[in-house]
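Below is a filled-in request sheet from our internal design queue. Each sheet records the structural input a requester submitted and the sequence that came back. We keep these sheets so that new team members can see what a complete request looks like end to end.

REQUESTER: design group, bay 2
PRIORITY: normal
MODE: inverse folding
CHAIN LENGTH: 477
BACKBONE (tokenized):
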């Protein structure tokens, strides 16, 4: 903590201190400092333990156990204010019974890892506690967002980074934006008149694509039956000829093909759809092309791997989740749009209490009306900070990461012939808390482990550990 006495944590008794003693209370400064230093101690201890292989990934309890209450830790909301001592215990125990997603042996999700600079960014963001809707109250963050989005568009390959975009609460929402904007581009009157102003619109996506595309078609009133699934090859990539055949078929039926989603890094196989070939078809039939790079978008930062997304610059919109492969703390997802003005046109409502046109500054920086949200969390700062801390030129932000689930399914799936094996092993794995990996069936394949490695803390030995652990746990089955 350094030598400055002001920042020394003293052995404090928090049992007689309450929230009302903290700032803005009179003389609240001292208890506030002591309390926050204690919290920081808890958090930094957690960070240390996260990277310690002798600790468990999780201390699993069933919902009823946690609901009944653990020793000293009760989820019930109390009638009376609790002392700060209890509040600190609650902080400690909340972390204790949670899952260490940054642990080197956590492989359960596409978003893993605990980036220290990103964490610092998130702490600062919470401290600033502002809202992204206007420049008025988030001047620095709004500019950071504009600048970073432009950089991302340059990396996508749009001339001079032209275009538009916004950070959204995750890839599913970013994908939903893409469908909305596509519809607005071709049928702007839907904004005011609703779906009766449009013909029957058809969307196309891979059978391996993320379910959020389907969710978007339901939520936006297009209907899940109007989402056509495309066949994939043996590595899980869309077969372009199948797209063209289905586009022609839809047109013959009198429907209007509106939107094609190409996935750059599918959620299960890590497959990259052939964007150029899909773009040819979209151009031929005048269809919006979206690239869902929620997972694989991070590879655009890599000179070595960005070819997997070649043709991405031909997309009309791109989803890119820095909170996945790039290890930015949750949440951080961007929707990038090639044509400027569509986001604004599609979503703006010009609320008079927020977006007054007669402010003293350039109100084009009041970007909040482009969003479907009103208030919007500051997701940009941690990302901007990490970018600054790690890359001077556009190279490879996740250089040290063993990125991606590769494109060959056999490399990452431990395929078992019996569907019950993987869930059984996973259950034992969670009870023992030593490691975590996801499982699922896919098409004809029964449950297999979806082995995704994007945690920068993981080494080869952790992967060996996981495999040995699967073997050990499965021994008695
Ligand atoms: C994870 C993922 C999404 C959804 O992103 P969230 O941030 O979880 O909403 C969408 N598409 C793909 C390909 C993904 O891997």
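RETURNED SEQUENCE:
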């Amino acid at each position: 903590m350094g030598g400055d006495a002001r920042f020394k944590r003293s052995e404090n008794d928090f049992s007689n201190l309450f929230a009302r003693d903290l700032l803005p209370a009179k003389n609240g400064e001292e208890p506030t400092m002591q309390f926050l230093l204690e919290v920081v101690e808890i958090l930094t201890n957690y960070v240390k333990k996260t990277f310690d292989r002798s600790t468990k990934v999780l201390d699993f309890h069933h919902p009823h156990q946690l609901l009944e209450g653990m020793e000293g830790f009760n989820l019930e909301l109390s009638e009376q204010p609790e002392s700060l001592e209890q509040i600190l215990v609650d902080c400690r125990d909340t972390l204790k019974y949670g899952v260490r997603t940054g642990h080197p042996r956590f492989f359960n999700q596409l978003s893993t890892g605990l980036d220290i600079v990103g964490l610092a960014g998130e702490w600062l963001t919470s401290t600033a506690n502002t809202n992204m809707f206007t420049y008025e109250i988030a001047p620095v963050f709004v500019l950071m967002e504009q600048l970073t989005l432009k950089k991302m568009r340059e990396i996508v390959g749009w001339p001079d980074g032209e275009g538009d975009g916004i950070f959204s609460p995750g890839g599913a929402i970013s994908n939903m934006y893409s469908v909305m904007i596509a519809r607005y581009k071709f049928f702007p009157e839907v904004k005011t008149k609703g779906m009766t102003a449009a013909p029957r619109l058809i969307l196309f996506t891979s059978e391996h694509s993320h379910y959020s595309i389907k969710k978007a078609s339901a939520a936006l009133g297009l209907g899940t039956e109007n989402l056509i699934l495309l066949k994939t090859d043996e590595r899980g990539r869309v077969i372009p000829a199948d797209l063209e055949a289905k586009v022609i078929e839809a047109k013959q039926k009198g429907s209007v093909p509106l939107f094609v989603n190409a996935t750059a890094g599918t959620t299960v196989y890590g497959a990259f759809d052939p964007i150029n070939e899909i773009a040819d078809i979209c151009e031929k039939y005048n269809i919006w092309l979206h690239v869902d790079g929620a997972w694989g978008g991070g590879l655009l930062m890599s000179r070595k791997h960005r070819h997997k997304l070649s043709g991405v610059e031909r997309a009309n919109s791109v989803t890119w989740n820095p909170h996945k492969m790039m290890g930015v703390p949750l949440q951080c997802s961007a929707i990038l749009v090639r044509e400027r003005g569509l986001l604004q046109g599609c979503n703006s409502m010009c609320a008079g209490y927020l977006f007054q046109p007669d402010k003293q500054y350039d109100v084009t920086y009041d970007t909040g009306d482009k969003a479907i949200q009103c208030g919007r969390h500051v997701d940009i700062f941690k990302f901007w900070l990490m970018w600054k801390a790690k890359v001077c030129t556009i190279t490879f932000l996740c250089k040290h990461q063993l990125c991606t689930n590769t494109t060959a399914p056999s490399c990452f799936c431990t395929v078992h012939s019996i569907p019950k094996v993987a869930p059984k092993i996973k259950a034992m794995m969670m009870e023992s808390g030593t490691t975590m990996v996801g499982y699922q069936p896919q098409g004809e394949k029964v449950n297999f482990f979806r082995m995704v490695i994007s945690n920068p803390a993981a080494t080869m030995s952790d992967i060996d550990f996981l495999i040995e652990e699967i073997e050990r746990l499965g021994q008695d089955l």
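SHEET NOTES:
- The two ends are 51 Å apart (CA to CA).
- Residues 407-474 form one domain.
FILED BY: M.R.
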